[in-house]
Amino acid sequence: MMNLAYITTITPFDKHSWSGTNYYARAALEAQGANVQCLYGYRRITPAMVFHKVAARLMGRHYQAVRSMASAKGWARFITRGLAKDTDAILSMSTIPVACLETDVPIYVWIDGCYEYMLGQGFCKMANDAATAHAIERLAFGRCARIFTCSGAAAAAIRQHYGENVYGKVDVVPLGANIDEPPTKEAVMQVIRRKDMETCRLLFVGVEWQRKGADIVVETAKRLHDDGFPVELHLVGLRDAPGQLPPYIICHGFIDKNRPEGMAELARLYQGCHFLFVPSRGEAYGLVFCEASAYGLPSISHSIGGIPTIVKDGENGKLFPLGTSPETFARYIKETFADCEGYKQLAARAYNSFASRLSWNAAAKKLLNEIRSKN
Description:
A 6-stranded parallel sheet has the order 2-1-3-4-5-6, with helices on both faces. The chain has a 6-stranded parallel sheet with strand order 9-8-7-10-11-12, sandwiched between helices. Helix 8 packs across helix 12 (about 325-340) and helix 13 (about 340-360) runs parallel beside helix 14. It contains 14 helices and 12 strands. Helix 8 links the parallel strand 7 (about 200-205) and strand 8 (about 230-235). By secondary structure, it is of the alpha/beta class.
């Protein structure tokens, strides 16, 4: 059994933490037989951090106090004091805790992208000092035996910005769907076989109207409706949806999937709809596409950021270039929905994508195999 130190900046026992990723990754590693020691929650607050936090907020920007050299050094001391003597490997879900860590234990990180990559995926309101952010990344990557990241785009960005430090170290391990009890293959195939093909139901899940492309989704649905195509659009997560919506657009508001009744409602939507349609303009990864595949729901989106690692054309959906018109999206939806048998085959392949590469079990198994091969 591998003794693994699991490092997270916030608790790995709360599903609300980082959209549940810290929680589900820990649980999956334990399910795959790792003996997991969790080290988390170190915080250091200095007057300079408070000043930068307040100044950033006044400017409408975001300052991460943890992304500082003082915090990185404090994390190193915290881990050194708490690390079990029989630890075989260290896995950190952030570069910051291990940037200044001096240890003979092999260090691994599992991240959704480096600082520059995140800025390029719509997280551009960061107010941290770029030179410090880069220094932390460079130090951490230099100490790592292996760098796991969740998408091909993130891996390319890490190689681009830190080439000499990461040569031969970067590997892609997709994150899984954050669902407590994913449906079985038998249950999904039964839903697909019985799915009503009279009205095409589109599902949008996202909080940010502009970055997630909700305006494109609404316009596409409008064009489909105006063309006489039987369409119904379900919007989930939006806090700023327009007050006046036509009858064929249903706004469900925010659904908390960490509550049993919320997850049940979201599962009904995944099962009852025909496409997940979230044409994001920026996306570091895109967990919602993994979740859709778990229910056999094909996805439609833009080919940007981490999405192409999850959504493969003809396998579990279709990706389009950024800037694709609502007319083009509408045409694809019409043509795919009209081929009833072809659609159901696509839906079945979507579930198979989840089972083979987009579940937490698949992710944890791949990651642990990689760590064992290096130790």
